Amino acid sequence: MTKRLKILNSGAAFLKTKVLRKLFVFCAVLAVCPLLTAQSSSGAHLGRRYLILGDSGPPPAPAGEDSPLAELARRMDGYFDFYNSFFHFPQDPDRPPLALRIFRDKTAFDAYLEEFGGENHGGFVFLRFSDPAKNELAGYLTGDEERDGMRLAHYGLVQFLRTFALDPPLWLQLGFAAYFERSVYLPETRQVIFVENFNWLAPLRSIMASYRAAGPFREREPNLGRILSLSREQAEAEPERAYAESWGLVTFLLKSPRQEYNRILWESLAALDYRASRTENEERIRARAFDWVDLPQLTADYGAFVEELRSLPELLEEGTRLYHGGDYENAERAFLRAREFQPDHPLAYYYLGLIRYLAGDYAAAADYYDRSLKQGGDPALCHYALGLTWYADGRPEAARPYLEQALLGDPQGAGARAKVLLDYLDSLE
């Protein structure tokens, strides 16, 4: 075996063994804006779409552009724009701003709800009045930025949806709220980034398993009719089931490869009437979106979809296992599916680079390694992989700068391997 071949084989083996230790520690951390504290929840601020009210009582004092209320207004404006980039509801320039009332703590929030005979079911409540212009979202923040961010995204979606239809079916409210609740606001750009939410996948799988294990006198498959007419009493009695099944149905209708199923969701949204009751909107949706569908086939396809649905961590784990087992074709499929869920995950790109490298597709491998690097992959490891790839492609001069960067970045790890190749290149001169 020639020295060149030994270097290539040794380098490929090194990348294969090091990728788990180096890249599985990556965790996508998105910046979030500082939320309100107990001392800063007074006043008011009017944003583009939102009026944020503190709990200091009327008349609220205006809050400056640098205040927490102003930042919260920008955040909620961002959610509104993000949601409408998905739903494309018509905009009325004369529509009053959406109101969000924030309290300093749970005690103050509960006291406010007592005025309306309401109850706190999770930190936020959408309050509906006879005059829709007075509707508001009310709640308090805990100081846990991740939790508060999810609640704002979740209940902000409910408020958004009920701005365009006062009483939509619960499966649409719960399903979309769960679908979007992990989306993250970036204060630097004032934009919202969608993050796939798999929190409801495990509960949904348990529900589907209960159908399969049911006896002869119980339901053996999902009852879509029950989900479509979900009542508030049913949702309050079994909230986890209500959320999981609603999230599952919305996810299925959005992501099914069959366009006629995607159409069902858009027809459901188009069927909503602003002032109709929830029951009336349910009937409108059934007539427009579901009456023409083969419901037994839809139910079977929904069950099969859930059976095959994988979360991002599951896809990455599956792809890694298949790759190290030598099943490169199916490993590539798993990583490509993972990329669909999170387009910026460095681990998926790195393994796709390894697979393309082994296939001799060096240009594609280099592109994947470069994307992994740009999305936060280990710099020294990615630089070494790029250098090895261009060397394997017969382009040693293109390989050299990447190898030198790997050596500088991690002299004892990937850099040590890069030095072996650099020394060999020097010996050829």
How many individual helices?
A: 19
- Amount of beta strand: 5-15%
What's the CATH architecture of the largest domain?
A: Alpha Horseshoe
Cα-to-Cα separation, first versus last residue: 21 Å
Q: Largest beta sheet: what is the strand line-up?
A: 1-2-3-5-4
Total domains, how many? 3
Question: Can you give the helix content as a percent range?
Answer: 55-70%
CATH superfamily of the largest domain: Tetratricopeptide repeat domain
* Most strands sheet: 5 strands, mixed
SSE run: HEEHEHEEHHEEHHHHHHHHHHHHHH
What is the radius of gyration? Answer: 26 Å
Task: Give a short summary of the structure.
This protein is an alpha/beta fold and about 425 residues long. It has 19 helices and 7 strands.
Could you outline the blueprint of secondary structure elements for this entry?
Blueprint: H1 3-23, E1 44-46, E2 50-53, H2 68-87, E3 98-103, H3 106-114, E4 124-127, E5 136-140, H4 145-164, H5 170-180, E6 184-186, E7 191-193, H6 201-212, H7 224-228, H8 232-237, H9 239-255, H10 259-271, H11 278-290, H12 295-308, H13 312-324, H14 328-341, H15 346-358, H16 362-374, H17 379-392, H18 396-409, H19 414-428
Parallel strand pairs: 2-3, 3-5
Antiparallel strand pairs: 1-2, 4-5, 6-7
